[in-house]
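Section 3.1: Structural characterization of target chains.
Under the original work plan, the team committed to producing a structural model for every single-chain target entering the pipeline before any wet-lab resources were allocated. The record below documents one such target. The sequence was received from the expression subgroup and is listed exactly as submitted; it comprises 538 residues.
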Amino acid sequence: MNPELMTPIATGAGLLLGGLVGYLLVRRTAAGSVREAEQRAATIVAAAEKEADALTRAARTEAETLRKAAIVEGKEALSADRAAFERETQKQQEELRERERELAQRDKQLGQRETELDRLRQRLDRKEDELDARLKDIEQQRKAVEAELEAIDRKREELEGALEKVAGLSRDEARQQLLEQVAEKARLDAARVAREIEEQARETAEREAQKILATAVNRFSGEYIAERTVSVVPIPDDQMKGRIIGREGRNIRTFELITGTDLIIDDSPDHVVISCHNALRREIAKQTLLRLIEDGRIQPGRIEEVFSAVSQETEKQIRDAGQQAVFDLGLQGLHPELVRLMGMNKFRTSYSQNVLLHSIEVSYFCGMMADELGIDRDLARRCGFLHDIGKAIDHEFEGSHQAIGAELCRKFGESDEVVTAVAEHHDDPPSTIYGVLVQAADTLSAARPGARRETVTNYIKRMEDLERIATQHSEVRQAYAIQSGRELRVMLDAERTTDDTAYQLSKSVAAQIQAELKYPGQIKVTVLRQMRATAYAK
């Protein structure tokens, strides 16, 4: 065979064989891919069917759960509605039973009322029958009396005729003489009856008054505190005494001058004594000294500063005391100034009896007696509480405390009953029932054992008289009686006076004291005129 021809034939056979082999390989590969795809598809279908079955079961389970929950919820709602319905039904049944009970009770009451009306009708019928019988009897008695009166008239005419013949008097003259005798006898009988009524009324009034007073005294239980004219201030040691006195006595002089009290420092190891008849000044001085001792800085400037602060605090205490008393008594509508003045009486005494406590006690007594008499208790308490308000005013005002108190009550809008009761609560005869109550209550409070002491009051009056004499002069700014009334210190207004005026005033005050007052020993009158100038460096 031609080699050149074999080459193309071999090449073609090789290509054909290669193509056949390639076809066979491709076909085999394609058949494997189809089988793999079919297997994968079957797997996916199986997984999908399995997931579908799972979703179906889950859906059925959820649906079943929802169905059961809906059934449970429906049952609960039905149970709640049934319970509400039962409660409402029970409530309505209770209301019906209550209504039935009320109707039964009302029927019972109506039955009782009908029974009572029947009994009343029967009593009225019996009364009517009795009245008819009484009227018949009265009519018979009237006819009998008229017959007797006719017989008496005839007999009287016969007697009058006989008397005229025997006495020689005419009928008119005899009648006049008889009338005069009857009138005289009637006057004597009336006087006797009036005297018996008056004596009986007096006995009844005294008995009732004693009963009312005894009731008031037994119902009230008050405390009594005997006021003193000195206050004791404890000190830590004797060195404090020297600091209180100060260099050359400057501190103690400043303290006594500012507070208007007498500071007694003796050999007592643990205290000093503040003496003053005015309880307010004494209390302010005591609190000032206590603060100075606690602070440790005792000097004239500090004394003035502490005294000013304590004075302001004491003013607040005064208002608080008045407001507390008004609150305890239940009084309404008192003017604030009246309340403050009554608080001032916390530091006033009368025969050693605290005036504020005395006023509260009188107010309670008046209220109790007003209850017994059936009159206005609040008005009676108001009169009793304000009866000594005039004692809160210093001696610079002229007049008795009754007149001052009445004027204050009138000024601050109190009623006429209060003003009159305050004005008449001592020696004047009371013109109203409330004035009588205030006088009685004031006497009760003052006369109870231990309530008052005469000696202290006389001492305080003597001290107040000394200060009153000094303050009568217009140029006097302040006046303090100290050393138990053995010394009177008078402070002048430096701008309105001179040193010569101070000297003349001391002589004038001493002469006036000697002329108006009675006292043992002698009284030293010291007139002080001090010029003070203050400037501030900025």
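The first strand starts at residue 230 and ends at 234.
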